[in-house]
Amino acid sequence: MEGKQFAKLAKDTKLIDKKLTATDVDLIFAKVKAKTERRITFDQFMSGLEHFATKKGVEVAKVHETVGASRGPVLTGTKADAVKFHDDKSLYTGVYAKGGPTNVDKDKVSDISQTCNRGDADVRGIAAGEVAHVTKKMSNVVIEEKKEVKKTASKTAVQSAPAGSLQEVFNKFTAGQKEMDGKTFAKFAKDCKIINKACTTTDIDLIFAKSKDKAARKITYKQFEGAVELCAAKRSQSAEALIESILGAGGPVFAGTKADAVKFHDDKNLYTGVYAKGGPSNVDNDKVADISQTCNRGAADVRGNAK
Fold this sequence. Notes:
- By secondary structure, this protein is mostly helical.
- Among the domains are: 3-68, EF-hand (Recoverin, domain 1); 116-150, no CATH class; 156-256, Recoverin, domain 1 (Orthogonal Bundle).
- 36% of the residues lie in helices and 8% in strands.
- The protein contains 11 helices and 6 strands.
- The strands form 3 sheets. Strands 1-2 form a two-stranded antiparallel ribbon.
- A hairpin with a 2-residue loop joins β1 and β2 (141-144).
- α1 packs across α2, α3 (42-56) crosses α4 (60-68) and α8 crosses α9 (221-235).
- The chain is flat and about 110 Å long.
């Protein structure tokens, strides 16, 4: 018997009282067991009952009688209360009134997983790729998978006009500031296509660190010119050829996402309701201007029923 079971026996047989506490029971268990063991034998158990009797100041026979009268461990649990809509089957509706859904008849819709498309989808939830048109019916359940997938946006990049001098390129990337930081220098190298296999992004960071002052975080225009020459050397080409390429790039490339045309948004001839009249107004307070005026904002109970 383990110490936990020994303590439960003392508790369930109501031997624990002011004279024999739960702490005393643990100490007695530690006393009767072997030093290297974690359990006790029946003989050690009987010895423990003798220690119980001594601690309580009663005869051993009385302790034996109390333990012998026990029917075993007391098992406790929680019994759920009756729930009308679960226990009263006469209140069941839908498929549950017919005995509930089944996972045996695979030719019928048995659960919600059969009504959902589990395939890949984009961030808007639109299924990826083209799928066959499938329709399944079961009583009032109709499942349809969309056939067409539309792209809603496309990425565009705006290239700067060619520059007349390296100073102009520097000013475009720094927005007129006199110094350039490492992040801007890395963008300059990327947008002007200085980066290649010979001159990697790591090389650009090292060139920037080499060009700037030790305690500084930015470089001046003169240091920028020196950095361009280092980039040309790294690319194994002349500084003049690289500068010509940079002037052709002109300046920073601005990239963004341009939304594609959406028929029901862009074609105002398709507008309906209040939007066909110019949309709702927040000036005419005597009319319904937004959804807050169509809702009851009064007090309600936890189920949302108005009081």
